[in-house]
Write a structure and sequence with these properties.
By secondary structure, this protein is mainly alpha-helical. It is about 50% helix and about 10% strand. It is built from seven helices and two strands, in the order ααααβαβαα. Strands 1-2 form a two-stranded parallel sheet. α2 runs antiparallel to α3. It starts with a helix and ends with a helix.
């Protein structure tokens, strides 16, 4: 509701400032967020930002957990050791819930681990795929 009052530009700025903590390299994070949130600063992007923020608190997400045990495909869980939003123990629980899943916790990487450590992420994914 606050986004409707403040407007899309202010809401996008708030998301930008909060999400920036998720990058090990602040400047790279700033560039990435500038690009990804550009559309969110318009009136058309406001609904998408609100939907994403609501999804973070959706209680239906927890109902998906039992379905993880039925996954029959290669899964690589890749986590930033310094994630300020989700502790690596969440990644451990995810790996334990998915049969055959691998877990790679990357030192120094934060929440946006694929941007912080792309080479290490690629190696973990290739290993899970058997390549």
């Amino acid at each position: 509701p606050l986004g409707g009052v403040l407007g899309p530009a202010v809401l996008a700025s708030f998301v930008h400032g909060s999400a920036l903590r998720g990058f090990a390299d602040r400047e790279a994070g700033r560039r990435s967020l500038d690009l990804s949130l550009r559309a969110s600063a318009s009136r058309l992007g406001l609904d998408a930002v609100r939907a994403n923020l609501r999804a973070l608190r959706d209680p239906a997400i927890g109902a998906l957990a039992p379905r993880l045990a039925g996954l029959a495909l290669p899964v690589a869980v890749v986590w930033g050791a310094a994630d300020p939003f989700l502790d690596p123990s969440v990644g451990q629980r995810l790996q334990a819930a998915i049969p055959g899943a691998t877990l790679t916790v990357i030192p120094g990487a934060r929440h946006f681990v694929a941007e912080d450590a792309p080479e290490q992420c690629a190696r973990a994914i290739r290993a899970a795929l058997g390549h």
